[in-house]
Amino acid sequence: MITLDDATVATPDGRTLYRTDKKWIAQGDRVVLLGTNGTGKTQLVKMIHRALSGEEMAVKCAPTIACGYSDQQLSQLDDTDTPMTAVAGTFDVGDQRARGLLAGAGVNIQMQDTKIGALSGGQKARLAMLILRLQQPNFYLLDEPTNHLDIAGQEALEEELIHHGASCLLVSHDRSFLRNVGNRFWQIDRKRLVEVDDPEAFLQSEMVRH
């Protein structure tokens, strides 16, 4: 689905952070990206997102990809929209089902016609995940998706990723989430992107560091 052909991951001002070597993500791969803060995890997520629009030549994307993207700021949400507009106005679900879906995502009836910008961080995060599910992607690109999610919201996301056969590349500081979801692990190490068997050595080193 995704092929990284020894891509260079850099800061916005052009400073090289690391090279990817030859890497790929196939159907059913749930890749967790590991690295200390500031090493360039988000930059790789953004590079792949740009590649899906044809803007990155070192990243090849299969034409069959339907991407569900969420960044740390939930920038895919428009704060001037209402939750009802974001769901019923975008997807063919009808008003009644849209209200039921929103309520199930923790956006109660009183908040469904207010501006998204007025929602709590948790409500916005669960709305973002609801919209991702309605998009029915076959590839998820997620940067810290569990930020602001409660336990039920995190479990619902895990269920979506594990049991619906989608592929993903994700960044997360949530140890239980990345252990539960990941079946492949890439680590940024000494300016290279390397594949490791599991996240445990990295997580142990992070505990020592902090």
UniProtKB/TrEMBL annotation:
Query: Domain of life, per the record?
Result: Bacteria
Domain spans labelled ABC transporter: 2-210
Q: Which UniProt keywords apply?
A: ATP-binding, Nucleotide-binding, Repeat
Recorded protein name is: ABC transporter family protein
Under the heading InterPro entries, the entry gives: AAA+_ATPase (IPR003593), ABC_transporter-like_ATP-bd (IPR003439), ABCF (IPR050611), P-loop_NTPase (IPR027417)
Supply the PANTHER family for this chain: ATP-BINDING CASSETTE SUB-FAMILY F MEMBER 1, ATP-BINDING TRANSPORT PROTEIN-RELATED
One Gene Ontology term of the molecular function aspect: ATP binding
What the entry lists under Gene3D superfamilies is as follows: P-loop containing nucleotide triphosphate hydrolases (3.40.50.300)
